[in-house]
Amino acid sequence: MLEITMNDQVVTAREGETILEVARRHHIQIPTLCHLEHVNQIGSCRICVVEVEGAKSLMASCVTPVNPGMVIRTHTPQVRQARKVLYELMLSDHPTDCLHCERSRDCEFRQLGEVLQVDLSRFSGERSKEMIDTSSAAIVRDNNKCILCRRCVAVCNEIQGVGALNAQNRGFHTEISPGGNLLLGTAVCTSCGQCTVVCPVNALKEKDATAAVWQALADPKKTVVVQTAPAVRAALGEPFGLPPGTLVTGKMAAALRRMGFSQVFDTNFTADLTILEEGTEFLGRLAAKALDDGVINQTQLQALHLPEHLPAPVLPMMTSCSPGWIKYVEHFFGDHLSHLSSCKSPHMMLGALAKSWFAANKDIDPRQLYVVSIMPCTAKKYEVTRPEMMNDGMANVDAVLTTRELARMIREAGIDFVSLPDEPFDSPMGQSTGAADIFGTTGGVMEAALRTVYELVTGRELPFENLHVKPIVGLERIKTASFQFSDVKPEWFFLEGVTVKIAVTSGLAGAGTLMEEIAAGTSEYHFIEVMGCPGGCISGGGQPRPTNDEIRKKRLEAIYREDEGKPLRKSHENPDIQHLYHVFLGSPCGHVSHELLHTTYTRRNRI
What we know:
Shape: globular
Structural class: alpha/beta
Helix content: 25-40%
CATH architecture of the largest domain: 3-Layer(aba) Sandwich
CATH topology of the largest domain: Rossmann fold
Number of helices: 19
Strand order of the largest sheet: 2-1-5-3-4
Number of domains: 3
Strand content: 5-15%
Distance between the termini: 49 Å
Radius of gyration: 26 Å
CATH class of the largest domain: Alpha Beta
């Protein structure tokens, strides 16, 4: 600890802290724009400048470390004037169409103007950037509004490890874009949308689908159904003033019903279904490996009642429910696609079932059935355009709305969201277990799978306290754990005493680390969960802003509360899933499931 003087008050500081960190800890507010805690600390915008006694010029507080005895003043006339001029210069190169901008309610640039007491710029001249890129199926890049803060660059490169966005050119002609004058839709972009979460203005945003959904709802020929992802219920309340981590499951269902959707389904239903399919596939890979190694024979294999056509004995198996992760591995590790589970993501499964089983039962023409997914994710917008996500010439899902888009539509519909009563989801795809809820956070898919896989093999519950695999709970980039099969059922004798090693990562940089191990042949894992966004779907590219670690933790806690409050907490116990297999699908990974619920992947170029 050391002492410095800040605004004529002696305060304590920790060695290595920046002026900004010390100020915030002592409740002194220094405005920032380019700064993003733990991610982007480059001092490029200079809005955070302060006076440091003895320094020749004003210092950027976000990158200037404190020294013993330092004397700092944060709001002198010179500092305030400098911030105003810097802001006015940025404003002179920025559209002032705030009334027409969807970010006007939460635009950090506009809010900064209010703090600095600047509403007009004294400067005018040529605009540096005039281009709107709509080539991506998921993300719109509006360079007119870019303020060159480089937050998106830091997230794309440092957190996601993709590098789709970087600063191009120099000086007045600098712009943030893919290299080689590529458009976002043709670049190596995973559509994860983390850039849209950290953008302080409206330069990066999800491609809007609200008009298409309103049009479908107004079409008397269409039956419009909707489904909601697990993570949405832990974040949708935030745009309406509710604290982060407030569960709004029932209000969400009520709002969607009042918007005009004919059926309100829960993606959790097919999250449970995913566990049955993915868990069976994992056990199939273990059995196939045992067969290859000569540990079991064909007669013993048949006693396991696995699908007739076993998956390849490729380990580790990796989850496949995150479309941003799928596109990442297709681009960067195309030689290792066999490690991916063949399961479609849960919302695509529900879409496929809606246009087959549900439509047939309700005597609805599936070509007039319009399926909308409410997702925390921008990559889902890209996912629904993939040709692999079609059956009988029809897309499984017709439109994806992010949590942010749904909030805007609820307001447009004049619905008082906070005052709504809690209402249930509709049958037959509305019942779920707690295992499905935890799909919304990093580690949840793995834990849900283990709850079922362990019980199928041993006949007993997973031996972890309250069913939670604690080593994989939390926001660390890469988490690992292991468990041992013991006292297995007779037919699973070859797994007796086997220690299964698992890994969980969220954010694509961590995925890259684990994939490098696989490529090098050094991976020790049997099963790996990957979520494309840091923290998992709770901080997906379509979730409300801001999203930081404090908010992630509150959303994560809400997801686990939802799980623990359910009477059923293991996917294989869902009676509606059991009925679905009995009357329609037959068996996990069987013929019907293979046609509707499984898919293939595409090797893509890295450039």
